[in-house]
UniProtKB/TrEMBL annotation:
This is Cupin domain-containing protein. Residues 144-177 are annotated as: Disordered. It comes from the Bacteria. The lineage of its organism: Bacteria, Pseudomonadati, Pseudomonadota, Alphaproteobacteria, Hyphomicrobiales. One of its GO terms (molecular function) is metal ion binding. Residues 47-115 form the Cupin type-2 domain. InterPro entries: Cupin_2 (IPR013096), GPI/OXD (IPR051610), RmlC-like_jellyroll (IPR014710), RmlC_Cupin_sf (IPR011051). Keywords: Metal-binding.
Length: 177
């Protein structure tokens, strides 16, 4: 554990980032695994308003995720199924294909509060079945919670969002090919 890391963190003391994207996506959240000195385990605290979700329907090819509902009620979209969720429920999202795609939606009237815990792979592929896109990324640098393609200069981090139909030939653009 580094000197900056803490052994105990109370979620009431976390500084949350509030963001909104369109009409359906909104959250006040933060990732805090590094504050605990954890390099291989990601932890996020999420507060999602009624009628909203904090992320699109997606699946991870490498990372496993677990969610623990602290307060509120909602719906857990998992693969082709939908499950009612409430405080005290634990949700699993193992790595896999579209059959493990998942999304938490606040269908209740109060704020939905949950913890997200995940393995932190150095390289990850994420698919988004509803929109047909994918994300290829590395997690070698400081985590950027913004859901964009931007990267700070000099971090060595790779992040690309695309669609399979833009697939190029292996030799495309290579000199002498």
């Amino acid at each position: 554990m580094t000197t900056e890391a803490k052994a105990v963190i109370n979620t009431a003391d976390l500084k949350l980032d509030h963001w909104k994207q369109g009409e359906f996506y909104e959250s006040a959240d933060t990732s805090f695994g590094k504050l605990l000195g954890l390099a291989g385990l990601g932890i996020s605290y999420n507060e999602v308003p009624s009628g909203k979700s904090s992320c699109p329907f997606h699946n991870h090819h490498v990372e496993d995720e677990l969610f623990y509902v602290i307060a509120g009620a909602g719906e857990y979209r998992f693969g082709d199924e939908r499950h009612a969720i409430k405080a005290g429920d634990t949700l699993g999202a193992p790595a896999g294909g579209p059959e493990t795609a998942h999304q938490i939606i606040n269908t209740g009237t109060a704020t939905l509060v949950y913890l997200g815990i995940s393995t932190m792979a150095k390289t990850e592929i994420v698919e988004y079945p509803d929109s047909g896109k994918f994300l290829a990324k590395t997690n070698r640098a400081k985590t950027n919670t913004a859901k964009t393609n931007t990267d700070s200069a000099g971090t060595g981090r790779f992040r690309h969002i695309g669609r399979p139909e833009t697939n190029l030939d292996y030799w495309d653009g290579e000199p002498g090919a």
